[in-house]
Structure formats: C-alpha cells, structure tokens
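Quick entry, no commentary yet.
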Amino acid sequence: MAANPDWLPRNHQQLRDQLTFMWAYLSQPEVLFRLGFLNHEMPSAPPGTLIPPNFYSPTGKWLTENFNPRFTAYLEAYEAWQVPAKRSPEVNLVLKRTEKDVKDFVRQLYIYIKGHPLATPADRLEMGFPVQEDSVATPAHVPASWPVAQVSVVGVGVLLFHYVDSKTKRRGKPAGVHGAMLRWIVSDTPPEHFDQLINNAFATVQPIYLNFDISMQGKTLYYATCWVNNTGKAGPLSAIAKVIIS
C-alpha cells in the first residue's frame, strides 16, 4: 500500500478524533484570542464558556461559519456509516463528500496557523498539524516597511482598518508578506512602549475589523501596525496612532 503523503488521517475514526481534539483546543478563549479569532480577551474564562458573537473577529467568523457546519455534517455522516445495516452506497458517498469538505477547510486553517506570528509549535501539535515542514523553503526576508493604517468608523463601535505600504504607498502587500498585524489597546493614557499594546489582530487580506460594545464609545484606542512575512517574522512597527471609538 502506498504511503499517505497527507498529514490528515485516512482512517475515519482517527480523522474524527483528530478534528474533535483540534476543535476542543481551539474552543479555549485564550487560544482563540492569541491566534486572532477574537477581538476581545476573556481572562479567566472557564472551559465551555459561551463566547458572545460580537467577540469574534472576521477571521473568527470565517473559522466558525466554515468549520462548524462542515464538521457537524461529517460527524452525522460518520455516525450513519458506523451502523453496518445503514452502510449503503449512498451513505458511503455522503461520508466521502463531507470528509473532503472538512479536510479542505482544515488545510486552509493550517495555512493560516502556520503563518500566524503568535502560533507556536505546541499549538500546531495540539491541533494535529505538522510541526516541521517536509522541505526547506527559501528564507523570506523580514519586511523593511510597514502598513500605514487608514481607519474608518463603519457602525456603532465598529472600526475598519485599511492600509497601504509605507514604501510603495499601495494597498497591495509587499513580496514575501503573509499579512498585517494590528497591535492595540484601549487606554485612558497614551502607551509609552509598543509592549503596552497587548491586544492584536491579524489578517492576510484587507481590511481588519475591530468590534466594540456600545459601552466603549468615546474611549481612545491606540494602535500600531507591522507586516508579517511567510515564516511569521514581523517587520518594524509603525508609529503609535490613536482613534476614538464611536
């Protein structure tokens, strides 16, 4: 039998188990926030905490709206396939289709996690993703420029960040850049150091959205931006700027 070059299991039970463990790990608010799926931190939230919909970033909505229905459909097909009396050609076909759908999305998720600057080898291991690449890629240069943010208020508590490159003045990403990192904090006093920008949002495509509760109206958000290359290395940060949440 030929070796399986794919890192996702062919065995149905092993695939179900891996996806279950992956989703359990990704359901932790701390992990979701650090990897850019949440706009707001949820400190000390116990396991199983219900996350408010407005806490999800656009990337978080992409995750939940794509993975949840695919995984649910696969689990239903798997449960039907497990019953020998129901294992008809139609059931086999549904299992094969739903398996392909969920695998296709998980591969997209892996690309996002692999390129995220705050994702660690331990994250990838917990999710069942490859920790080491099979081949050595050409080293990517650390970006020398940075994204210059253009902020718009598009709704109550909703900030929209478009950006252009500081060198080319164009919206396109420089060569070798995977995405833009936005570091930010809501504070009554201006931060003196970049380390004080303790929150982050990451996007591979424009724009970056931040959604805030109505109680945050009138408060000041301080932010800085940088490019992140395809190996997760960040370039220089822009100067710290501010915007009023309205």
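second:
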Amino acid sequence: MQLLINQGLLKYVTKAKIEIKRAQIVEMLNLELFEQQSNFPIGTPTEIIQATRENVYNNSNLKKMGNEVIVENTSTTEYGKEVDIYFYVQVDEDAYKVDMTGAKYIENRDSVYTLTYEDLSKGSSNKASILDKLYNGYAGVSLRGYNNTWPSDWYGLNTPHIELTMDLSNYTTLVFYVRKVANHGSSYVWIGDDNVYAKGYLELSTDWSLVEIDITKYNGNYPVRFVGGYGDRTGTTASETQYAYIQLKK
C-alpha cells in the first residue's frame, strides 16, 4: 500500500513540475511579446511578431529550459489556411505558439509528424544529399545536378530527386520548406502521378519558403517525389534545390 502511495505522489510531483515549467515558458514568451508591443505601439502585427521571434531566438534563459530549443520562423498559414502571423517554439517534446493574442502551450502537436534524417535516408534518390540539420535544426535534402531532357523528364529518374513512400492516411496537409541555392534551381513535387506543386527557377526564391499542400484526397501509401532543378536546355548548367522540415499534419 505504501509503495502505491509513494508512486502516486511521485507521479503527481512529476506532473506538477512539468506544468510549472510550461507555465514559466509561456510567461517568458508573453513577456517578450509584451515588450515588443510596447516598443511598437502603432506597429503592425508582422513587425511585432517578427521582432518578438527575434528576441525569443536570442533569449539565453529560454535556451536553459530544455535540452533542445527550436524557434521556428514566422508564418501566416496553418494547416493549409491563411491565419494571423505566428511562430512556434519547440522545447524538447513541448510546443508553444506565439501570436498577437499571446503565447500558449500546444497540446495537439502530436498531430504533426516531422520526417527525420532516418526517414529521408530510406528514400530512393538521384543526385541527392541527405542532411541531418539543414533548416532550423531539422533534416532535409539537397538536390544538385541537371538533366538534358527538360521539360519531358521532370518526373524522370535522371532529374535530381528523392522519392519517399509515405502513408498519407488520416493526414490533411503536406508541409515543407524549399529554396534554390544555385543557378536554375526549381521545385516540383509529385504524389503518385499528380504534380501537386511546381515552381520554376524564375519563381523559386533563394530564401526559405513555406509550402503547404492539401492531401486530404490521398488515402494509403503513395510515392511522394521531391524534384530539384533541371539545369538549362542543354544540360550544361548545374542547379541546386533544397527541401527541409518536411511534415505531415492531421
């Protein structure tokens, strides 16, 4: 009986410590937000949230709150919908959302699956380098090379690409960050035979861009192919495209 009581007390104390830590982090994030709201009394939400995110990123006290602290970039889309600007903070297994309404602990972060280095390493690829921490501490892939059969070979094996077999059941959104690094880097994403995303080299930015794709119609296992640049028409100019922080959201 005494053992059961002690185990119950230990579980209660552990839970209380976790809740206290979460409350401290929320308070810390709110203080950063309130400070920027004071600094920009007539500032736009974009100005305030971006300044808050910058201060949070450089907050040394926050970095002591966990073994792994990741401050994500700001965004105005969530689960495929336009929303007010916000950013996420990941502290070990916990996630927090910061927007103009304040900071809050996110309980349903488990509804997001982030592809790991190991996941990407299982894919079939051509001219691809898997990187453990390519973007904001998350794994990604760099596709560098060219082919000389553009545009007929966007989906072909000669094009720089990585193909992953993914179970898309119960997920609604495919999310990733993408950028071109060199020359004619472009981006094409295929799910099965469907070209669900296309950005030519003139459109694709050298800055990381967030992409969210509705995948509600796909149920079961599908080949998902991330394709890099094609070079020029003669195949003499190499290109480089990078994908990172690839997620499936419910």
